[in-house]
């Protein structure tokens, strides 16, 4: 299995060596332009200030007080417009003409009547302060935070909560940029407490991931999977950060699943910056799980996708593959790949050798660090002579670029190589240089610690000022709300007395009307019952039935069948008596009605014994005495069935009556 993986890696390396400069050729295919535009409310045509504008390639801008923006982008890029005051929308760039974005629903979100609306002048100043804070964010954290504090102060004691939330979001972004993640998380939470926005919630989830708070990140990001309001780029970020969180928890399969879901969306929507990132992260996850074949495949995909973007992206992915080879002790392959990266890095212009927007870290991709890693690969194979030139080059370049960390490590490693070769003079000389670099680095670190301490104090002071402004605003709001509540309480007390009087009058009137309508309803019910009884009497026994029954008795008598005549006449008289008794009642028990039907059917069957048979079935669960129905309600239906149906059949029919409960509720 190991040999198969080695063969695959050699093929990948061969492909990289054949086309080392492919990425620089594809770089020119995407031409960025300065795209200008304006964001306005659709109905009022009013400009919308402070809206964030981003591209799917990482560009960022913000609308000014006139709603205008300028951003670097190319034709075909997707612009995303986000603000706390309207739902996120997107726009695809068709040409370099000025873009007009019309937003619906912007004026529908207005503060309550108890809140004082900001004047247009104060609003413009607030937006201007936030714009200035964003401009100074990469260069001067003190000024950036001061501008944010000024923007909050501009809102006043009872400022608009949406505007306050936007200030806190910018403050959190500044802290996050300078790796002050605890402060960033606190301000994102405060922003959500002032005014909820889905984009702010996503930013909080990303801050949790950066701070290593995996469970908190998962709890806030997981519900966002079902939120359809997010644009594709944001959905990719959701899945990517969920993958980061599960990867940090060591759950490789879950992290890969989320990375792959994000990769699917990025590929479908052509979000090109995310494609190599997600491929690389999937490869990293598989590599950490020792699943080397899958890692190799995704590293290959990441390299292919990176070549279509900036050259430094391809170099970064090559370095990842080289680190992967180093872990597997494939030093020759690693050395060849790093040399290819070194050639590409040296061929780049100084301005693009480092990726835009990426701060320099301890593992930044630089020529001195690549030289140092090549030397380490040679040293691992005991090839000291080959390692020395790369260590010397690493030391020289690091010294030139003031990279004291790499200079320290390379100098120490060079001293060790000389010592292993037995050249103790050079080893001592190099070690002395190492000590000098360490001293310089120590002094530099002390200075950095001093600056960091000073910066932390300034940040704490400014943060306390911002917290004080928020507390002052909340206290003022509480006092205002209390005064309003007292005023409303007095008004409510006066209204309550009037309502009691009106309620009593209304209650008396309502009782009188209720009594009147109840009396009238009772009279109508009695009238309806009388009419129903009259109708029942009218529909009782068909005269034809009585006449035919008497003829049947007469027929028995003429035939001297006295027994049959007596039996028939007895049943007939019992039926008549029952009908007359029931006619005096409005409702009779179901059992009485069934007995009447049995008498009637018995008489009819006696007359037509060869025409039909009958049966009456009643569910056992039915309480016959409890159910009440009008008398003679069912007899007319049976009479019609016999006289207009069964009577004319050539063969005997079946008359079945089934009584069951239709609804138990």
How are the SSEs placed, and which strands pair?
Layout (H helix, E strand, L loop, with lengths): L1 H17 L3 H6 L5 E9 L10 E4 L4 E3 L5 E6 L4 E6 L2 E7 L6 E5 L16 H17 L4 H14 L6 H17 L3 H14 L3 H13 L3 H8 L10 H17 L3 H17 L5 H15 L3 H16 L3 H17 L3 H17 L19 H14 L3 H17 L3 H18 L2 H116 L3 H16 L3 H21 L5 E2 H18 L4 E7 L9 E2 L5 H9 L9 E7 L6
Parallel strand pairs: 1-7, 9-11
Antiparallel strand pairs: 1-4, 2-3, 2-5, 5-6, 8-10
Helix pairs in contact: 1-12, 1-14, 3-4, 3-5, 4-5, 4-18, 5-6, 6-7, 7-8, 7-9, 8-9, 9-10, 9-11, 10-11, 11-12, 12-13, 13-14, 14-15, 15-16, 15-17, 16-17, 17-18, 19-20, 20-21
Question: What can you tell me about this protein's structure?
Answer:
It is a single chain. This protein has 665 residues and is α+β, with helices and mostly antiparallel strands. Among the domains are: 36-103, Carboxypeptidase-like, regulatory domain (Immunoglobulin-like); 221-301, Alpha Horseshoe (Serine Threonine Protein Phosphatase 5, Tetratricopeptide repeat), CATH 1.25.40.10; 543-659, no CATH class. Helices cover 65% and strands 9% of the residues. It contains 22 helices and eleven strands. The protein has helices at 2-18, 22-27, 120-136, 141-154, 161-177, 181-194, 198-210, 214-221, 232-248, 252-268, 274-288, 292-307, 311-327, 331-347, 367-380, 384-400, 404-421, 424-539, 543-558, 562-582, 590-607, 635-643; strands spanning 33-41, 52-55, 60-62, 68-73, 78-83, 86-92, 99-103, 588-589, 612-618, 628-629, 653-659. The strands form four sheets. Strands 3-2-5-6 form a four-stranded antiparallel β-sheet, with no helix packed on it. The chain has a three-stranded mixed β-sheet with strand order 4-1-7, with no helix packed on it. Strands 8-10 form a two-stranded antiparallel sheet. Helix 10 (252-268) runs antiparallel to helix 11 (274-288).
């Amino acid at each position: 299995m190991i040999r198969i993986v080695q063969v695959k890696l050699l093929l990948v390396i061969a492909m990289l060596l054949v086309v080392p400069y492919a990425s620089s050729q594809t770089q020119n295919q995407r031409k960025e332009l300065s795209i200008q535009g304006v964001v306005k409310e659709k109905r009022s045509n009013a400009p919308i200030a402070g809206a964030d504008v981003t591209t799917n390639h990482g560009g960022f801008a913000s609308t000014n007080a006139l709603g205008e923006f300028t951003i670097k982008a190319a034709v075909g890029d997707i612009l995303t417009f986000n603000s706390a005051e309207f739902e996120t929308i997107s726009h695809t760039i068709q040409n370099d003409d000025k873009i007009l974005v019309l937003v619906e629903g912007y004026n529908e979100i207005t503060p309550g009547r108890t809140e004082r609306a900001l004047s247009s002048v104060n609003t413009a100043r607030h937006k201007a302060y936030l714009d200035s804070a964003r401009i100074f964010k990469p260069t001067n954290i003190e000024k950036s935070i001061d501008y944010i504090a000024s923007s909050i102060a501009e809102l006043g004691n009872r400022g608009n909560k949406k505007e306050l939330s936007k200030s806190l979001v910018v403050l959190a972004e500044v802290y996050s940029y300078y790796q002050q993640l605890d402060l960033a998380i606190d301000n994102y939470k405060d922003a959500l407490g002032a005014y909820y926005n889905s984009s702010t919630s996503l930013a909080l989830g990303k801050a949790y991931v950066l701070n290593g708070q995996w469970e908190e990140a998962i709890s806030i990001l997981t519900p966002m999977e079902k939120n359809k309001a997010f644009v594709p780029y944001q959905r990719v970020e959701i899945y990517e950060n969920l993958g980061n969180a599960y990867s940090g928890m060591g759950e490789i399969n879950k992290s890969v699943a989320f990375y792959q879901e994000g990769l699917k969306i990025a590929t479908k929507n052509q979000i090109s910056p995310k494609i190599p990132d997600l491929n690389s992260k999937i490869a990293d996850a598989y590599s950490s799980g020792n699943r080397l074949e899958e890692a190799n495949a995704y590293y290959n995909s990441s390299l292919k996708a990176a070549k279509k973007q900036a050259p430094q992206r391809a170099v970064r992915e090559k370095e990842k593959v080289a680190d992967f080879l180093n872990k597997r002790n494939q030093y020759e392959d690693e050395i060849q790949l790093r040399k290819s990266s070194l050639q590409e890095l040296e061929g780049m212009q100084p301005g693009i050798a480092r990726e835009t927007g990426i701060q320099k870290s301890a593992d930044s991709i630089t020529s001195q660090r690549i030289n140092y890693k090549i030397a380490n690969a040679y040293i691992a194979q005991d090839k000291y002579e080959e390692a020395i030139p790369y260590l010397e080059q690493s030391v020289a370049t690091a010294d030139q670029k003031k990279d004291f960390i790499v200079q320290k490590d390379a100098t120490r490693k060079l001293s060790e190589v000389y010592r292993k070769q037995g050249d103790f003079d050079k080893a001592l000389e190099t070690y002395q240089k190492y000590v000098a670099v360490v001293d310089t680095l120590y002094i530099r670190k002390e200075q950095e610690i001093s600056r960091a301490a000073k910066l932390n104090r300034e940040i704490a002071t400014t943060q306390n000022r911002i917290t004080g402004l928020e507390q002052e605003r909340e206290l003022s709001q509480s006092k205002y709300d209390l005064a309003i509540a007292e005023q409303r309480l007095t008004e409510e007390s006066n209204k309550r007395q009037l309502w009691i009087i009106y309620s009593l009058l209304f209650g008396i009137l309502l009782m009188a009307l209720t009594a009147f309508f109840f009396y009238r309803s009772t009279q109508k019910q009695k009238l309806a019952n009388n009419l129903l009884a009259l109708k029942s009497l009218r529909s009782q026994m068909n005269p034809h039935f009585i006449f035919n029954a008497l003829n049947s008795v007469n027929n028995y008598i003429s035939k001297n069948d006295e027994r049959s005549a007596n039996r028939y006449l007895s049943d007939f008289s019992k039926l008549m008596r029952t009908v007359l008794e029931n006619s005096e009642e409005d409702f009779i028990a179901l059992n009485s009605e069934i007995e009447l039907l049995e008498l009637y059917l018995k008489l009819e069957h006696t007359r037509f014994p060869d025409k039909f048979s009958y049966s009456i079935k009643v569910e056992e669960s039915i309480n016959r005495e409890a159910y009440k129905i009008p008398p003679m309600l069912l007899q007319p239906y049976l009479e019609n069935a016999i006289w207009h149906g069964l009577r004319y059949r050539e063969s005997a029919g079946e008359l079945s009556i089934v009584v069951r409960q239709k609804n138990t509720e």
